[in-house]
Amino acid sequence: MAKGKDARVIVLLECTSCARNGLNKKSLGISRYITQKNRHNTPGRLELRKFCSYCHKHTIHGEIKK
């Protein structure tokens, strides 16, 4: 029988510097990545350092709700 909740969930990562700046005039949008995390190993919010194509540099991308 299948369990009710799966351990792996799909999460969205969003650039924190683009979101904080409120889409400044130079940037056209907010950088987002899709990834998976294990809910048992990482119960808190996931934060990874990824490349933002709008900021043109590596920034911290934090987990957001779908």
TrEMBL record:
<dbReference type="Pfam" id="PF00471">
    <property type="entry name" value="Ribosomal_L33"/>
</dbReference>
<dbReference type="GO" id="GO:0006412">
    <property type="term" value="P:translation"/>
</dbReference>
<keyword id="KW-0689">Ribosomal protein</keyword>
<dbReference type="GO" id="GO:0003735">
    <property type="term" value="F:structural constituent of ribosome"/>
</dbReference>
<dbReference type="InterPro" id="IPR018264">
    <property type="entry name" value="Ribosomal_bL33_CS"/>
</dbReference>
<dbReference type="GO" id="GO:1990904">
    <property type="term" value="C:ribonucleoprotein complex"/>
</dbReference>
<dbReference type="GO" id="GO:0005840">
    <property type="term" value="C:ribosome"/>
</dbReference>
<keyword id="KW-0687">Ribonucleoprotein</keyword>
<dbReference type="InterPro" id="IPR038584">
    <property type="entry name" value="Ribosomal_bL33_sf"/>
</dbReference>
<dbReference type="InterPro" id="IPR011332">
    <property type="entry name" value="Ribosomal_zn-bd"/>
</dbReference>
<dbReference type="GO" id="GO:0009507">
    <property type="term" value="C:chloroplast"/>
</dbReference>
<dbReference type="InterPro" id="IPR001705">
    <property type="entry name" value="Ribosomal_bL33"/>
</dbReference>
<keyword id="KW-0150">Chloroplast</keyword>
<protein>
    <recommendedName>
        <fullName>Large ribosomal subunit protein bL33c</fullName>
    </recommendedName>
</protein>
<comment type="similarity">
    <text>Belongs to the bacterial ribosomal protein bL33 family.</text>
</comment>
<keyword id="KW-0934">Plastid</keyword>
